[in-house]
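Incident log, entry 3
Record: Chloramphenicol-sensitive protein RarD (295 residues)
Problem: checksum mismatch between cached and fresh output.
Input:
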Amino acid sequence: MTEERIGTLYAMGAYILWGFLPLYWKLAEHISSWEILAHRVIWSFVFMIVLIIVIRRWRLFINEWRKIISDKKKFFGIAAAGIIISLNWVLFIWAVNNDHVLDASLGYYINPLISIFFGFIFLKERFSKLQWIAIAFAFAGVFYMTWNFGSVPWAALGLAISFAIYGLIKKVVDLNAIFGLAIETLIVIPIALVYIVYLDVIDVGSLSFSLDGLILIGTGVATAVPLLLFGQGAKRIPLSLVGFLQYFAPTIMLLLGVFLFNEAFTSVHAITFILIWIGLILYSYERIRSHRKVG
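Fresh output:
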């Protein structure tokens, strides 16, 4: 089996797991989104530290941590990344557990186009006319939904924008994927621990020797495994293929929202998704074409 085929399987596995992640959060829909987030931060950190020890990267991790805390710019960048991804996580959990899986799906369809826009504004990247048309279709889709429903799809935009900001920070502050998640969660873990202790003091916490306790501990695995698969896949396959595979996750979410969770999929949703899909097709086509020219 070729490296590219192995990489494709890794990346597909990551996006398929991300797509089905709403099923996991639904198991804990009776638990506060903020409590789930706090446990997700704590157990993700624990899982990553165990993994770092198992793969014998502890010294490298400690050296990386020392470099970061001695570099204020890098430290604040990683801290910002940790806060932003935590907000993205809690918004996603809230959306799933409050019957907004379609909004979550919409957000992750919009995200690549928001990232393009951020690249233009903050990284001075320049785009072709086709890429601008793709962005215009995405914004047209959001505007159409806002106009017809009378309200902005805040959950979708929040997920798209927060993940785009996270990606922008990660682009500027380069860090190993395994170390990155461990350090990001390490920085926000004091807040998570204080919140968990507070819930325990007022006797409303959900961590116990029960199914709820296992689900909360499992959030670390649910967070880290897809990320590790993605890291292994992304370094083996072309960027254009990564761009194509990333739409597996929101497509699975869309199907779950409509067919399993019975969320309303109106004609307004249909037209909004079609406009965004057109934008994504144009964007993907232009990216593949540019990649072939460079190759």
